[in-house]
Amino acid sequence: MFRNFRLGFFLRQAVEGIFRNGMMSLASVAVLCSCLVLMGSFSLVSYNITYNINAIQSVNEIVLFLDPELTDDDITEVASSLRKIENVQAVTFVSKDEALRQYRESLGEDGAILDGLEDDNPIKHSYHITLKDMKLFDQTVYSVGQIDGIVKVRDRRDFVQSLTQTQNIVGLICTWFLVILGTVSLFIVANTIKLTINARRHEIEIMRYVGATNWFIRWPFVIEGVLLGAFAALVAFSIEWYIYIYIFDKVVNQGEILQLLPWDRVAASIGWIFGGISIALGSLGGLISIRKYLKA
Amino acid sequence: MIEFQNVTMKYPNGTKALNDFSLTIEDGEFVFIIGQSGAGKTTLSKLITREEKCSSGVIRVNNFNLSRLRDRDVPRLRRTLGVVFQDFRLIENKTVYENVAFAMKVIGASDRIVRKRVPYILNLVDLADKARRFPRELSGGEQQRAAIARALVNNPRVILADEPTGNVDPKMSLEIMELFRRINEQGTTVIVITHEHALVRYMKKRYVEISHGCVINDRVGG
Hints:
The complex is a heterodimer. By secondary structure, chain A is α+β, with helices and mostly antiparallel strands.
């Protein structure tokens, strides 16, 4: 009897509260919604960068060109030295003939300009190695450079570095948006609910006099916050969807270098994040606003 | 039963509202608390409802020891009390029926019980025909009867009325006293805080006179 949760009663109270202060409710949904969309967009950028870093397979591949003077035995020797380096995952030999053939293929119809090079192939034999851990990139490149017979090392380090840097910056901005906009949203939601509380202060007083429990008094306001949050999440999700499909897609596909994750792959995470953050902020707003009315 | 044993109440600003105050009210009694304004009447009421905590002494209300009562158990104490105010404190945008029903719903009564109990109580205070009216459409006396209905609806052991006739004309005041008498006759303890001696003389019940935070008179009659 003492612990009562009357959902119907609470919901009615909460919905009444939202409509009683229609404009403020709208304002808090709008702010919460902008917060979510900004945050969501930055997370999606960051998410896609990670995806692209992993997608560009050649990124963790290093090409080592060999001294043309090496004998076949020397070349095998280099391979076993490479395999001894801990961070090396796979070692593939690409002969100069094979390299020329691949190059010709990549040129397509223009491949004919390479005709006649078969006998005087300027390309060197090479080893393509892939790494286990990208974080040890620099160390591994150094170790590889120490092996005799390797004349040139080619890697995509700069590209990876710039992507990683962008990702770090985006992550930082994302965190700050979360903190600042989250605080602002919380403040506005709490103030909106305070208006409802103010309109209801006589009811709250009566509730306390007849012996309603503090949680019974709190629930309608917490639920009001949750409803505001849920509505904001829903709107923000739709906006984010539009932004992703129309704007992200346009920007990314202009360059043709990067790939965009399909919306289906990110929709669920965005939904959970939006729902979680806004409902947490909403209910917290409700709790904060009612706090001072519940002293004994 | 309500029991004050050597209770002293000192507000943070230094005002001493009650001074070594002792008083016992048995179950089923009808008691007036009278005194000038500032005598400590309202403090007494706030101590009974545990809006305030006393500085020293022991207060027992309906088997609750208020100095040991935890905050989260205060609602349990208040469910044994029905409080009536001078300014009625009805919710303006609810009808008489809804005001009374509200008091039941917020302590978790089911709709079925509310539908049964509210008309019975409105009938008791003679407001059955005004159930669908809003407070502003009622006279002061009727509003106070609605407030008494709200205080009664959860079947409290004690009705505590702080200046219940302060905003009601004299003829209506006597009607409200008669209503309290009927409630009391059904076994509910009634405590009326007032400064109107006329009511005390009319009712011929026990009265406790307070001055400067002490009992100066405790007798029956008028």
